[in-house]
Write a structure and sequence with these properties.
This protein has seven helices and nine strands. By secondary structure, the chain is of the alpha/beta class. Helix 1 links the parallel strand 1 and strand 2. Helix 2 packs across helix 4. The model has no long low-confidence stretch (mean pLDDT 92).
């Protein structure tokens, strides 16, 4: 196990998913911590309309706080409990961390929602640096309409900035209810977008494909989008 980074997994009220992730982490032999999430009755959640979104956001912020307060961990990797992970995750991470540091990144998306293959002609995804000696993966800039907090990595410094900006004491969430020009208090509108950012392509984490339309509030469009993203990025020979 590598002590340089730790995985923090958000698993709210779903023992089946949690057990599946536990088995996956144990098979990979990674350092991990489960966080049970934020109940809708949590006093930080003031708005009934956004309780699910705010619960998720505070869940991520709480995990980031755990990482930030850990003096023995330099990089935090945050994920949700419905993903599959690259079978060579541990072998890949030392080089990814080296590249992360070289590029002076604040946030790197390791898993995300992408419904198409990225080709070199796509101007929305420009190489961060083409001098890196990495023949397996590219580090790409990405537009604001790339969504998902399936798995992402933060530097310690950026974790502190995120907590200062978005945690409960900042009143950021309450301010968004009044000032509609502010970025919504939502994980993939904020945590994956601030700072010097990149996505790793191809991804090394992908949704597990266990989709239920009720999870998306009955929205067929969302259901189909997540299904396509899984089909485009999943390879049974790579992900466990």
């Amino acid at each position: 196990m590598n002590d340089n980074y730790k995985i923090y997994c958000l698993s709210y009220n779903n023992p089946v998913r949690k057990l599946s992730m536990k088995n996956r982490f144990e098979k990979l032999k990674v350092n991990y911590i489960f966080y049970d999430g934020v109940n809708f009755t949590d006093p930080r959640i003031h708005n009934e309309s956004y309780k699910q979104c705010w619960s998720c956001m505070y869940g991520h912020l709480d995990m980031i706080k755990l990482f930030y307060d850990d003096p023995n961990t330099n990089y935090g990797i945050f994920c949700e409990d419905d993903i599959l992970i690259h079978k060579d995750f541990c072998e890949l991470m030392p080089k990814i961390i080296q590249d992360f540091t070289y590029l002076n990144l604040d946030v790197l998306l390791l898993g995300y929602l992408l419904g198409f293959k990225i080709d070199k002609q796509n101007q929305n995804f420009i190489l961060k640096n083409n001098n890196l000696n990495n023949d397996k993966y590219n580090y790409l800039n990405f537009p604001n309409d790339i969504w998902g907090t399936q798995m992402y990595m933060l530097s310690k410094e950026n974790a502190g900035k995120i907590l200062e900006k978005y945690d409960h004491n900042s009143n950021y969430a309450l301010k968004t209810l009044v000032d509609k020009s502010m970025t919504p208090f939502s994980a993939d509108w904020t945590l994956t977008k601030d700072g010097n950012r990149a996505l790793l392509y191809p991804c090394i984490a992908v949704e597990n494909g266990d989709f239920n339309i009720s999870h998306y509030g009955g929205c067929v469009g969302q259901y189909n989008f997540h299904k396509i993203c899984h089909e485009i990025n999943y390879d049974p020979n790579i992900f466990i």
